[in-house]
Amino acid sequence: MFEKIKLEDLSKENILAYGEFYKGELNSSSLEILSPLKEIAQTLNKKLILVSLIGSLENIKDWEEIKKSLADEVWFVINEELKDFREDLYTEVLVKIVKFSQPYGFFFPATKIGMSLAPRVAGALQVGLCAHVNNLEVKDNQIIMARPTYGENIIAKLISKSIPIMATISLGAFGIKYGEKEPSIKEIIFPEDFVWKSKLKIRRFAPSKKKPTKLSTAKVIVAGGRGLKNKETFQKLFELANLLGAEVGATRPVCYEGWVEEERMIGISGVTVRPKVYIGFGISGALQHTVGMENSEFIIAVNTDKEAPLVKIANLALIGDAGKILELLLKNLSK
Amino acid sequence: MMLKYPFTEEQNTLIDLVTQIGEEYIKPYALKWDEEETYDERPIKALADADLFGIIIPQEYGGLGWGSFEMCLAVEKLSYYCAGITTIYAASFLGSYPIILFGNEEQKKKYLPEIAKGKKICAFSLTEPQAGSDAFAIKTIAKKEKDYYILNGMKHFITNGGIADIYIVIAMTDPAKGARGASAFIVEKNDPGFSVGKKEKKLGLRASVTTELFFNDCKIPKDRLLGKEGMGFIIALKTLDFGRCGVGAQALGIAQAAMEVSLKHATSRIQFGQPIYNFQAVSHTFAEMAIKIEAARALVYNATKYIDSGAKDISGISSIVKCFASDVAMWVTERAIQMMGGFGYMRDYPVQKYFRDAKCLQIYEGTNEIQRNIIARELIKYYK
Amino acid sequence: MEKIIVCIKGVPKPGSIKVDPETHTLKRENMELILNPNDRPALEMALRLKNTYNTEVVVISMGPPNVIPLLKYIYALGADQIILLSDRAFAGSDTLATSYVLAKAIEKLSPFSLVLMGLKSIDGETAQVPPETASLLGIPSLTNVKDLFMERGKWIAIREMDYGEEEIEVTPPIVASVSPLAFDYIRPPSLKRLLEVKTKEPLICQVKDLNLDPQRLGLQGSPTQVIEVFEKKIETKGLVLEGSPEELVEKLIEILKDKGLIKF
């Protein structure tokens, strides 16, 4: 179907990105990491290659996404044994590819799979691995990676002295961009004597169901109070949450009004939260609410009342009608 | 605490551990348990895993071999977080005292190690529907038949009913002898003819469980008798003498928590342009709270040290402790609500829970009226 | 079953870390150490397995000697033996150098059936050390494990992945990182053991005890290096803005971009 290539013929000193597949679908996080890597690759005058391990070609669903991607090349390793993710076998396959293609960099999305796989690969190669990188730049021909650390208040800038430079890249840190040129797709042919064997046997798999609210651990929270005036306006918070990667929180009265389920209540009888950014729409900030969110890193209050307690503790307060501002914000963001 | 007590290193270790359990296993859930009136076994499991059920159990039976003082330290600190959970804990001590004080070697060997590990929870069962303050009016009968006793009757308002594994049951072996015709028995939860009745719906202490107990031809081996036949009320009264300081310690924890919560409110609540604590009507109320709490604490600590010194005449002082400290807790919790105004009345804040919890301390393990009877009776022994 | 090894870490108490604005290094003087909270579930899993299979639990920690009080606390939780890997040469180790030391120490403790670690530390938050250590030991690793038990001499692990829950069979020994949500009850320390620990000291191992290659230790053995740290500043404390909804939304979008919540 497309070009088959032997390990020893792989082009060298490229930048590799791990393309995570699940049931024939390419995880969007693998497309996200291509955005910063493309810039890096261009600056360093290197090719960007997406490397994917899959069970078979048949059930790949999103060829379009792959073809539109920023990668210069896509390398597939196809074997029935690669149908499920098993870190030991996956590591061996990737280590072989690295040994033959001697990449300059190898990057993984910080998914659960990426975080299980990258350290094994780095360990086997005995090279450095940076974690949860959310910014990449090239300075004096060197890749500099930044990541939040020590409870996220502190940013560290890191370099890696070993080649390939390896890192897992934070989820959601970069948006997906598309390329102009369709990548060339190759299938890597492994030697006959390669043993496709894992010590792990998957006995059962239960796909995850509905996601529970992650309010208490959310990094961003958009919360609403009575100032949003009705359930319909309140529900718009979910649209905003989607755009910002946030969770929706609520005050007590709003939950009791039935605008939203009680699991989303923040405060004394609800959840305590400490997100990096908290935005309160139409929340005056009664004590029972504020004790549950006062430790948020950055508080934004949107309220008509300049004297409202939440306005007083906010880092930024916007004095105006919360519902109107929410609707306008959504309109501007979806532009 | 304004008055700092010189605790030993071991006592400090105990206090730190109880505080850790309170913060981690109780504080986040206390209002929820109260609201839903549910029993959660996790804090009890934590207390068990931490060896805290073994405080008063002698070392040779796997306990720590400590005294009333340490027991009260644990109860006080725990009660600061939730008096309901503390009730389960302290009531289990009440059920283990009869075995410690009156059990024979076999009984101690059989029960105390598991009690110390927290694998078995105890309950003390005296009260019956017609026998409250008038404990001598109990009607549960224990009839001896060969190698067994057959129990018939019922108990009510029994703390830890249903969750306990071991029940100390006071029953009449010879009703004709009146008070001298009662005996104390160890009943295990799986004994034939023993069953647990309905769970009571309570004003406070709602994280704890209170039920009826039924004995329908409940057949237990004769070696479950504690002490001798006829000693039932002596065992019961002695147990209560030891247990009452625990109620005093519980009162300290509640009062301390109520004062702290309301004080935080009073110093941060702005009315008329300033914190309400600036108003003398408010600050003097807190001064009064501090006076009462420190006095109650001094009383609890000194009385338990007196008990631990091996004193025999402890009825009067333990009644004084229970009576005074629980009255203090009631007063402080009521004032704490008042100091918080409308906030205090709302169930989102814990002070109303403290208030409801405190009320029971004036009632259980002998009402404060009965305590005053005891104190008055004991008093004239000292001044005859 | 052979012994279970648990690797734990002392981490700075959240909020006790500050950056020196002059030197751009971490100020460690006032740092208070706590047990990495994510290590509690790993210890709990080990202690439950100890109860079920009657095996020994050995705890290893790598760090400076000021972690010793924490190790005593671990002993009070029920560990049988505690080993502290402490040497000036370890200072500045990244995950590779750390995994190397741990792997060497674990190797020395052979035979073992299982190595447990917390999913990640709350300071470094890399989650790399468990798989990396396994990789260096050449044994399988599983991350995010919720439950673990033995069946006919094999480990059966339940683990949480992005797409769902897997049940995996694997021959021991393995390294597993434990999900922070694995248990709804985690035991507190025992009072009796807390009173005993005053006389207990961990076994301290240094470079010379472990046959380590000095080239692979500390800063020298760490390919990844921090070249700069800086603290994020809160910019607009207490800014109150009035204006038309359009102006306010514009400001809001600006802030959201600044916070990295909107990407364009």
From TrEMBL, chain A:
Gene3D superfamilies: HUPs, TPP-binding domain. It comes from the Bacteria. Binds 1 FAD per dimer. InterPro entries: DHS-like_NAD/FAD-binding_dom, ETF_a/b_N, ETF_a/FixB, ETF_asu_C, Rossmann-like_a/b/a_fold. Residues 15-198 form the Electron transfer flavoprotein alpha/beta-subunit N-terminal domain. The keyword Transcription does not apply. GO terms for biological process: fatty acid beta-oxidation using acyl-CoA dehydrogenase. FAD binds at residues 226, 251-252, 282-289, 303. SMART domains: ETF. The keyword Flavoprotein applies. SUPFAM superfamilies: Adenine nucleotide alpha hydrolases-like, DHS-like NAD/FAD-binding domain. Transmembrane segments: none annotated. GO terms for molecular function: electron transfer activity; flavin adenine dinucleotide binding. Its cofactor is FAD. Keywords: Electron transport, FAD, Flavoprotein, Transport. Belongs to the ETF alpha-subunit/FixB family. This is Electron transfer flavoprotein alpha/beta-subunit N-terminal domain-containing protein. The lineage of its organism: Bacteria, Pseudomonadati, Thermodesulfobacteriota, Thermodesulfobacteria, Thermodesulfobacteriales.
Automatic annotation (TrEMBL), chain C:
Keywords: Electron transport, Transport. The keyword Electron transport applies. The keyword Transport applies. SMART domains: ETF (SM00893). GO terms for molecular function: electron transfer activity. InterPro entries: ETF_a/b_N, ETF_b, ETF_beta_N, Rossmann-like_a/b/a_fold. Residues 23-214 form the Electron transfer flavoprotein alpha/beta-subunit N-terminal domain. Pfam families: ETF. This is Electron transfer flavoprotein subunit beta.
